[in-house]
Each structure stands twice: as C-alpha cells, then as structure tokens.
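Each record in this resource describes a single protein on a pair of labelled lines. The shape at a given residue is found from the number at the same position. The record below illustrates this layout:

***
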Amino acid sequence: MDANNLEDWIDSYSDDLLRWAEYRLGDASLAQDMVQDTFIAAYENLDQFKGDSNPKTWLSRILRNKIVDYFRSAYYRKNIFEGQPSEEDGAEKNLFDHEHWTNAAFESPAWEEEEALMDQEGFKDLFQQCLENLPTLWRDIIAAKFFAGEKGKDISQEFEISTSNYWQIIHRAKLSLKNCLQVYWKS
C-alpha cells in the first residue's frame, strides 16, 4: 500500500466517515477532526493494512476506536449530560411480563405516525439518549448500518461477528430503541 491509495480512500470514503462521525458525536467540527485523525492514523499505519478487508471497513474501525477513546476521555465524562434513561429502565423490560409478551409490545405509538419526528423539539435528543443506552456493540452496529450505510457483510467482518449474530443484534437493538421511545416520548 502507498500514499496514492490513501488519497483515493480520502476521495472515496471521507463523506461516509464524516456522516457517521457527525451522527455519533453530534458535533460537525469534532467529527471533522476525528475523520482527519483517522486518515492520519491510516497513513502512519498503512503497512498494517493487509487488504483482506474493504479499506472502508479498516478506516471505519480506526474512526470507531478514535470515537470510543473520545467518549472514554476525561473531557467527555465531565461534560456528559444528565437525565438519560438508566439501564435499570431497560428497553426490553416493558415488553415482557414473566416471560410472556405484553400488549405494550404490539401497540402502535403515536410517534410512529409522525412524518417529521426528528424535527420535533426534544425528539432527536431523546433518540440519541436511547441510542446511548444500547450496549456499545449494538450502538456501533446500528450506526454502521443505518447512518453510515454499510452492508451487513462488511459490518459482520468489521466487528468480527457472524451474520446471524449481526441480524440478532439489529433486531434486538431496534426493539430496544422502539421501547425506549415508547416509554419516554411524550408527543
């Protein structure tokens, strides 16, 4: 691999990486810095890219690690917002009653019928909070699929999971998000 490949990668993948980073971080400026740092790290470690996977997968993994490092940093911990639904409020908790499905699992909430839901005040923040409550792996897989537009095969390879495990995680994460929104969204 050489620096010319990196230039091609910047042209081909920077928009997707930036979109995913903006989603994860909620800050366009910080996302740009993270994507720039990703390409710098890729350049510095170009000899480690073996070509066994798609370059986008490798770059996404570098970016993901940089974002995880940011969230683990003291800066982020000092500035984290309060009032998130806690893990004890568990998204799946309200779907079952003593190992049986409850009626709440099948009800159609009002928020499903809204067309411009992400534009409503407070909904985007709640959605972000619900995403943050997902296990890290689930959250990253959901972001890769729905916000970065990656294919399931690439995501499975990137996270080193089987395709059936990938689909289970997608299903469970969507159920968890749905329940969290049902519990906390008041239209």
Summary: The chain is about 65% helix and 0% strand. The chain has two domains: 3-78, 82-184. The chain has a mean pLDDT of 77. The CA atoms of residues 19 and 71 lie 18 Å apart.
